[in-house]
Amino acid sequence: MSGAAAGGAVCDTVLTGALLADGRRVSIGIRDGRIAAIDASLAGGREEIALGGALVLPGLVDAHIHLDKSLVGDAWQPHRPGKSLTFSVMERVAIEAEILTRAAPVEERAAALVEMAVARGTTHLRSHVDIDPVTGLRSLHAVLAVRERYQDAVSIQVVAFPQRGLVSCPGTGELMDAALREGAEVVGGLDPAGVDHDVAGQLDVVFGLAERHGARVDIHLHDAGAEGLAELDEIARRTRALGMAGRVNVSHAYALGMVPRADAQRTAERLAGAGVSILTNAPGNHAYPSVRQLRAAGVTVIAGNDNIRDAWWPYGDADMLERAMLIGYGSGFLTDEELGVALDLATESAARALGIADYGVRVGAPADLVVVAARNVPEAVVARPPRSHVFKAGRRVAQAGTFICR
Ligand SMILES: [Zn+2]
Known about the structure:
globular; 12 helices; alpha/beta; 2 domains; binds zinc ion; TIM Barrel
């Protein structure tokens, strides 16, 4: 068949020799930034790129990153351990504040991390950005500038994140309100019990802002055991009451991985019923929710890199295939089907939870694609092979692992 598919117009670009996740070898025609045709053979596009049988996946989704915190693009910063034996969010925040006063400007570091992520096939990011009376809206403005600068390469959702607490840190709620007026589209939260010691108080502000701005919600929840579980139940209750199914995510939700399985099951069913998704990055040093148990209960589970080479965590290079591998590794995923689940957390499920419209390798969807030197999805997850091309809305934004769209 000719490149003049679906409507008769000639495609701008035709990718030949593309291997799909279902094993078909096809040509993909791209026109006006969207996938115009997927066929056994297409020819005659203005540009033709031969993929030689490489695997084409939808652009990867990093559903949790901190663009303002990362030290990528700056001098190497050795990790500074905390003084207390038990992990404390607020002690880490104090160490971070010290480190960041000497770091390169947010815009410089965030840009370097964006380019790193895109080069590895990420086409959608959700970035939490610190909002507090010390930082004000400075980091927000920097990240919004980076979002605009890279809008042709990656879609970025911004979360107004109260890193220093919300009700316990006066003025933060007003700043988050301002952040949502200025371009953030998600309301963040942080350990309503552990940080604010006022579960109802923090959730009143978070869901109040979400209602006022028509915004989504994404809450960091490290609170442990029964306390964390009760907070998840309360988030599910409020989500249901406000009709916000599919618009609320809880990141980490460690409690689900720390309590007896039957207790986690009850809360998982409440989360599924309310349409609350759970994000994990499968940390190596902490219990985290069972991906298998949550999915079996009907919860949408998604993945993100979270901290990358910052004051919290020295690891990472913004690769969502590596994150899928780490989640699969930590979850004991071995079969092809399970490895497919690991990828799903960073593609289809993440897109659904973030409200990304028309996602996937399908006719009519934006041509957000990553080409991987793998024979199938399981191999892409276990080996994290090089990405030969990354396309955003049909535009080539990375090639041979290098960002090319400035
Ligand atoms: Zn985070």
